[in-house]
Amino acid sequence: MSWWSRRRPMRCDAFVELVTEYLDDALSDDDRARIERHLRGCDGCTRVLAEWREVIRITGHIDDADVDRLDDGVRGQLMAAFVAAHGST
Ligand SMILES: [Zn+2]
């Protein structure tokens, strides 16, 4: 059974919405499983996740407020990675 056969695949923007909670280990098992399934099929989000982990390594933690406070360059880099992953729509 393919991972997407029981529910629609998570979209990349949903991943971005949940990524801080994922990294903070604050998600339900169900949401975490959805993210991990998405990551298996999405190289772009895997790369974005790696970049978030790097941010956490540097800052020690992350939450939505931290995202808002991120240096524009860093945030731009993350968003560029996301856009590159997502392709132009
Ligand atoms: Zn994705």
Account of the 3D structure:
With 89 residues, this protein is mainly alpha-helical. It has one domain. The protein has five helices and no strands. Helix 3 runs antiparallel to helix 5. The protein starts with 11 loop residues before the first helix and ends with a helix. The N terminus is likely disordered. Zinc ion binds next to helix 1 and helix 3.
DSSP, total strands: 0
Query: Low-confidence segments, ≥5 residues, pLDDT <50?
Result: 1-6
Query: Given the helix and strand composition, which structural class is it?
Result: mainly alpha
Helix content: over 70%
Amount of beta strand: under 5%
Order of helices and strands: HHHHH
* Mean pLDDT over the residues: 76
Q: How many helices does DSSP assign? A: 5
Query: How far is the N terminus from the C terminus?
Result: 29 Å
- How many independent structural domains? 1
Shape: globular
What ligands can be seen in this structure? zinc ion
Radius of gyration: 13 Å
Please summarize the sheet with the most strands: none
Quick summary of this structure?
This protein is mostly helical and about 90 residues long.
Defining traits:
89 residues, binds zinc ion, mainly alpha, single chain, disordered N terminus, 5 helices
